[in-house]
């Protein structure tokens, strides 16, 4: 079973962490775009996010199946793109990532992250995985940047377009940060 | 000195998910490759278009990935080209450095009991694959004379069977946003069925459906459910005993019992259709002379001769698919020295997806399969095991120039279907082959 089977309803609204709301967060100098996917759709979203961020931050694109926790250093902006699979479960890669976080409980109080979730409103477990993962990262002290992006596969919107739009809202926050640094 | 990347010409036969994913994975690792995906239909995406239920548009959205690939320079679509028909497999293998068969399995398996065996299938017995194609507007299927009555028996409890439960009981307005073949619903199933019996060999803990699929049935207000409480209690006892012994049963099995209990306990005074779950039953005979009048089962878990009989005019088999051309060159196992485990079936010839591993698994599992077989192709290109230098598409283009539908042609068909769908449907599929070809043409 997933550790937190019920997603919290009180997802915090967009945090504007770069305006100094988090006392502990360190200014990131690079981005890791990590994806957990079953069908490749989350990977496609991650490709778009990487393309949007790479002009402003040294960025890297990686599957969560190959992700090592020691890469979660404070100078990193972690961008997670992940889908929900089956009965509200984590997609391939997101499962081992969450398992590792739960097992090691690293202190992520200096880490900033952003999250884009893929789901399908045909199922009541819509976006459970990205919500649970986001909650877990916050529990460990990480600070979310920007809105929690979500794409509904049953909508008429293409996932890559939705990811582009979401990434476009993230870019000004990143630019702001680069200007500060 | 820079090394020139290899430029293999690769053909994939079949544009369903396994074929498209294989092309995707090969292109990632061999940026110099040129790939043509052939399909006997003029429209791409195989089971995504004609197998995934029309009310699961979210699952169908996976085609967005392939849309992008086909609009690039390295991947081409060659629709309306049957291999073994317009081109022989031999001609294809002479033109391409590697050929990957991704033709799937689409022939419905028969029950293999009197009334539905190789010799005879009674009228009123239908395969789930054919029905799924009809519901999805497949151009090769006709529904004349097909009409469901009040009660149907579905044999098999996999996800396809659950798709059919929804189809047999949903009203047209519950299909908002789908790409359901409208005419089929109104002619073949004008009103929702009063009774659907869903019969499986397994006991509830081992039933074949994914829990999430049955949970989705709970969201259908028109349905009420009948499940033998004694079977659920027995399953629960096994779960509890295993847990106490420190060897808990698989998560999916436990979840399956949870969702079945939820269904059984739901109060549904407004429901118009009843779904009866039957477990542990083996089909023994489909009854009737020309037309089916009922079906008989034996109890799987008992030595007694006890049988269970359900009277019905409609039996739907949902027990899997088989090769329609066993023993031919399109059957991977017909090739001497094949290595099915890696997808290699002859020099330069590969197989992937359901054709390789049997008719099991959803899109994610076949994506993994595509990754594996793409790896074999890439390895053979890089190791030099495959001699490159064949002409590729140019070697066959003249033979098929008059009929082939390319991706631009598909996009024109796509536009026409989306326009036909109107506000209420994701698309209105065109069933007529000539009309499909008409829309594929430019201008």
Structural category of chain B is alpha/beta
Span of the ends, CA to CA of chain B:
48 Å
Instruction: Compute the average pLDDT of chain A.
Output: 86
Shape of chain A: globular
Strand content of chain B: 15-25%
Class computed from helices, strands and strand pairing of chain A? alpha/beta
Keywords:
heterodimer, A: 181 residues, alpha/beta, seven-stranded mixed beta sheet, 22% strand, B: 443 residues, six-stranded mixed beta sheet
What does this structure look like?
The complex is a heterodimer of chains A (181) and B (443). Chain A has 181 residues and is an alpha/beta fold. Helices cover 32% and strands 22% of the residues of chain A. Chain A has four helices and seven strands. Chain A has helices spanning 41-53, 94-104, 128-139, 159-180; strands at residues 30-36, 58-63, 76-85, 89-90, 112-119, 143-144, 149-152. In chain A, strands 1, 2, 3, 4, 5, 6 and 7 form a seven-stranded mixed sheet that branches. In chain A, strand 5 (112-119), helix 3 (128-139) and strand 6 form a beta-alpha-beta unit. In chain A, helix 1 (41-53) runs parallel beside helix 4. Mean pLDDT of chain A is 86; it is low at 1-21. Chain B is of the alpha/beta class. Chain B is 35% helix and 16% strand. In chain B, strands 3-2-1-4-17-16 form a six-stranded mixed sheet, with helices on both faces. Chain B has a six-stranded parallel sheet with strand order 6-14-7-8-10-9. In chain B, strand 1, helix 1 (17-29) and strand 2 form a beta-alpha-beta unit. In chain B, helix 1 (17-29) packs across helix 13, helix 10 runs antiparallel to helix 11 (251-265) and helix 15 (407-421) crosses helix 16. Chain B is globular. The model of chain B has no long low-confidence stretch (mean pLDDT 94). At the A-B interface, loops of A face helix 3, helix 4, helix 9 and helix 13 of B.
């Amino acid at each position: 079973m997933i550790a937190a089977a019920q997603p919290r309803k009180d997802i915090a609204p967009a945090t504007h962490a770069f305006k100094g709301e988090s006392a502990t967060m360190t200014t990131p100098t690079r981005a890791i775009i990590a994806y957990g996917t079953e069908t490749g759709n989350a990977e496609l979203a991650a490709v778009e996010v990487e393309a949007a961020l790479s002009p402003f931050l040294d960025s890297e694109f990686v599957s969560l199946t190959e992700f090592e926790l020691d890469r979660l250093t404070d100078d990193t902006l972690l961008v997670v793109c992940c889908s929900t699979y089956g009965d509200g479960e984590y997609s391939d890669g997101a499962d081992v990532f969450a398992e590792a976080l739960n097992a090691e409980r690293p202190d992520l109080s200096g880490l900033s992250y952003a999250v884009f979730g893929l789901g399908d409103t045909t199922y009541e477990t819509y976006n459970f995985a990205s919500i649970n993962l986001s909650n877990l990262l916050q529990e460990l002290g990480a600070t979310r940047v920007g809105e929690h992006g979500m794409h509904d596969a049953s909508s008429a919107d293409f996932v890559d377009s939705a990811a582009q739009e979401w990434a476009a809202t993230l870019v000004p926050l990143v630019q702001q940060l680069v200007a500060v640094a | 000195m820079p090394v020139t990347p290899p430029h293999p010409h690769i053909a994939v036969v079949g544009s369903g998910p396994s074929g498209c994913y294989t092309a995707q994975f090969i292109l990632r690792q061999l940026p110099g490759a040129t790939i043509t995906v052939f399909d006997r239909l003029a429209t791409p995406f195989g089971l995504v278009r004609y197998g995934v239920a029309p009310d699961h548009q979210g699952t169908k959205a996976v085609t967005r990935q392939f849309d992008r690939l086909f609009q690039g320079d390295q991947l081409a679509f060659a629709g309306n080209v049957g291999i073994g028909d317009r081109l022989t497999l031999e001609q294809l293998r002479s033109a391409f450095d590697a050929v990957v068969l991704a033709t799937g399995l689409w022939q419905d398996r028969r029950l293999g009991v009197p009334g539905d065996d190789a010799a005879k299938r009674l009228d009123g017995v239908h395969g789930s694959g054919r029905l799924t194609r009809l519901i999805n507007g497949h151009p090769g299927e006709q529904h004349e004379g097909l009409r469901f009555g009040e009660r149907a028996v579905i044999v098999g409890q996999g996800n396809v069977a659950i798709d059919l439960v929804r189809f047999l009981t949903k009203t047209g307005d519950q299909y908002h946003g789908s790409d359901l073949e409208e005419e089929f619903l109104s002619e073949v199933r004008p009103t929702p069925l009063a009774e659907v019996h869903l019969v499986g060999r397994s006991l509830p803990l081992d039933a074949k459906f994914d829990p999430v699929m049955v949970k989705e049935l709970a969201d259908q207000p028109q349905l009420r459910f009948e499940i033998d409480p004694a079977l659920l209690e027995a399953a629960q006892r096994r779960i509890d005993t295993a847990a106490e012994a420190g060897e808990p049963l698989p998560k999916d099995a436990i979840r399956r019992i949870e969702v079945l209990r939820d269904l059984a306990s739901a109060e549904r005074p407004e429901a118009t259709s009843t779904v009866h779950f039957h477990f542990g039953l083996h089909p023994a005979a489909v009854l009737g002379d020309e037309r089916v009048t009922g079906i008989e089962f034996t109890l799987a878990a008992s030595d007694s001769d006890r049988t269970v009989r359900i009277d019905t005019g409609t039996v739907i088999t949902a027990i899997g698919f088989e090769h329609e051309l066993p023993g031919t060159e399109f059957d991977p196992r017909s090739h001497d020295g094949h290595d099915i485990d890696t997808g290699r079936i002859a020099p330069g010839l590969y197989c992937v997806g359901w054709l390789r591993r049997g008719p099991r698994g959803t899109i994610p599992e076949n994506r993994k399969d595509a990754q594996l077989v793409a790896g074999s192709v890439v390895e053979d290109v890089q190791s030099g095991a495959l001699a490159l230098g064949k002409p590729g598409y140019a070697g066959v283009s003249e033979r098929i120039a008059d009929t082939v539908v390319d991706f631009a042609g598909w996009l024109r068909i796509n536009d026409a279907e989306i326009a036909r769908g109107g506000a209420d449907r994701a698309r209105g599929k065109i069933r007529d082959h000539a009309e499909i070809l008409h829309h594929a043409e430019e201008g």
